[in-house]
Amino acid sequence: MATIAHEEKGQSRVRKEQFSISEMIVEVAKKFLDEARRKRINLDVDTPPHNPLNIVGDREKIAVVLTNLIENALTFTDDGGQVGVKAETDDGYVKVLVVDTGIGIPEKEQERIFDRFYQVESHLTRRHGGMGLGLSIVKAMVEMHNGQIWCESKEGMGSLFCFMLPIDENTASAAARVFKTA
């Protein structure tokens, strides 16, 4: 629990290195292929074919972010559904989208889903278990990289989780100033 608290408060160390987020998405998605096949879920990855989308950041932390978002998408998507992961550039940032055709999140619950220990209270979500820590950790890790994360969802139709990370140190410094004043 101490590690979780450090992650959420941004006190965990960020080990910066350059890496391809496109390659990481493919690597992380491969870990879920068996689960997707078992549930007959189409797991689709869409990254630019000739652009590795290199960023400077903590490879392990971003892998945790992707793992958590893809795992949640698969968990809350019924058999025969779809999960997609897409990456693209957006004005000095890499934008990663994880979209699913799952159960969705009620609008009134969406603003709290990144809170620690919070889980959407529903007979549909309770059957999946968990402690409600995953998305709070994901948010903390994205924010440690001077990034942003948000969710758009319609109950019964699915969810879109999107996060943006600065491509380089200059963008990260500018983002830190902007996000702190917003």
**Biggest sheet statistics:** 5 strands, mixed
Main-sheet strand order equals 2-4-5-7-6
Q: What percentage of the residues does DSSP assign to strands (E)?
A: 15-25%
N-to-C SSE series?
A: HEHHEEHEEHHHEEH
DSSP E strands, number: 7
Give the name of the CATH superfamily. Answer: Histidine kinase-like ATPase, C-terminal domain
Describe, in plain words, how this protein is organized in 3D:
With 182 residues, the chain is α+β, with helices and mostly antiparallel strands. It has a single domain, classed as Histidine kinase-like ATPase, C-terminal domain (Heat Shock Protein 90), CATH 3.30.565.10. It contains eight helices and seven strands. The chain has helices at residues 2-9, 21-30, 33-38, 59-75, 107-110, 123-126, 134-144, 169-181, and strands spanning 17-20, 42-46, 54-57, 82-89, 93-100, 148-154, 158-166. The strands form two sheets. A five-stranded mixed β-sheet has the order 2-4-5-7-6. A two-stranded antiparallel ribbon has the order 1-3. α1 (2-9) packs across α7 (134-144). The longest helix is centred in the middle third of the chain and has 17 residues, at 59-75. The protein is globular. Residues 1-8 and 122-126 have low confidence and may be disordered.
